[in-house]
Specification:
Helices cover about 55% and strands about 0% of the residues. The protein is mainly α. The mean pLDDT is about 95.
């Protein structure tokens, strides 16, 4: 039987400030990178043996 998952610790101090800044200012992704990711997703979806949306 699987062990229970521990609760995620709360981020505090400078780490929380860095995390919030990263969430507020995401790194832009190029259209080429988005298309590459979409093709990878479609490939994985095509070979999956279980239902995917």
């Amino acid at each position: 039987m699987a062990r229970p998952i521990k609760e995620t610790p709360t981020i505090k101090g400078k780490d929380s400030i860095r995390f919030q800044e990263a969430m507020d200012n995401p790194i832009p992704v190029s259209k080429e990178q988005k298309e590459k990711q979409r093709r990878a997703y479609e490939f994985m979806k095509s070979i999956a043996t279980f239902p995917m949306p």
